[in-house]
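pipeline stage [seq->struct] | target=O-methyltransferase | organism=Amantichitinum ursilacus | residues=221
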Amino acid sequence: MNTLLSAPVAPLLKKLYDQADASGMAMNFAIAELSDELLTRLMRSKTEYTDFYTRLKEVPLAVSRETGQLLYMLARHSRAQTIVEFGTSFGISTLHLAAALRDNGGGKLITTEFEPSKVAQAQANINAASLADLVEIRAGDALQTLAVNLPDRIDVLLLDGAKALYPEVLALLEQRLRPGALVIADDADYSPDYLAHVRNRAAGYLSMLLGDDVELSIRLA
């Protein structure tokens, strides 16, 4: 059985994506209030990004359907057993990754989200998908929640939270990434420091852009 394509996960994801599509207008309205200059500053700032995400606390901020399928495929192909996710939102990407763990025979997914209302919604979605035994949601600042009690070996890392923090989150986890581990960063163009790091072969990665918005890196050593 394929967990991603079967009940309860498949119908739940359809419902969540339909809701995300419907909320697109709310997100566009919130973003439209910001000038391009201010939006870029908020997205790249290590101190002001909370203002941007607070404006969007009711918005799912979901990965695309294609990116969700990519996450599942990468986690399945790599036979991942331990996954860390930065930026849970409503848990759509979490469901794809946890479904891969189920089909890999089990494992552990640690995900973190600073907005309390989103933590509650994500937990409800994970419970509804019957994947709660595989997922631990940590509420709060990722630089604190991902600084303790982590597995010694991480197979897959998804970065999909505040873009300005991508370098800091990677630095917390880098020594735990096994050789061959995959790092997937959504909208990494808002984090030029992160891109400079993973695209520098001397840092121990091979990295490339997939489509318009996903940076895929493999840990070489």
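stage status: PASS
auto-comment: The longest helix spans residues 9-22. The chain has one domain: 3-14+60-219.
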